[in-house]
Design brief:
This protein is an all-alpha fold. Helices cover about 80% and strands about 0% of the residues.
């Protein structure tokens, strides 16, 4: 198990500053993405009903396309949201590490501790 002393840190200095990915719950993207996916799917359905000559054709083509739009948007938005949060967090880590060597060592200690915890679970 890594110790703070291995990284020239005191026990009180071993806490890394919180970045955006530490503050955002992974389920947040899904909770935000579902309403947007529903709106996109219903919008595709309504648009096809409006653009076709009959309601039957609009429903026949709109329901599958609206469902596909819902599925695509429901999957893509959470992935892009998580990607954006992780990229902002990486920039925050780089900026904070560049300003203070103690913070850099605290991030290294946290990464080593997380790697040790992952290895310990296996």
């Amino acid at each position: 198990m890594p110790k703070p002393e291995d990284f020239d840190l005191a026990e009180s200095e071993a806490v890394a500053p919180k970045v955006l990915s530490d503050l955002v719950n992974p389920g947040t993207a899904s909770r935000i993405g579902v309403p947007l996916a529903v709106i996109t799917g219903v919008g595709a359905l309504v648009q096809l009903i409006v653009e076709t000559d009959t309601i039957g054709k609009g429903l026949a083509f709109g329901l599958p396309l609206g469902f596909v739009a819902y599925l695509i948007f429901g999957f893509v938005f959470p992935v892009l949201f998580a990607f954006g949060v992780n990229m902002i967090s990486a920039v925050q880590r780089l900026a904070l590490s560049g300003l203070d060597s103690r913070v850099r060592r605290a991030f290294e200690y946290k990464a080593a501790l997380d790697a040790w915890n992952r290895h310990d679970r296996i």
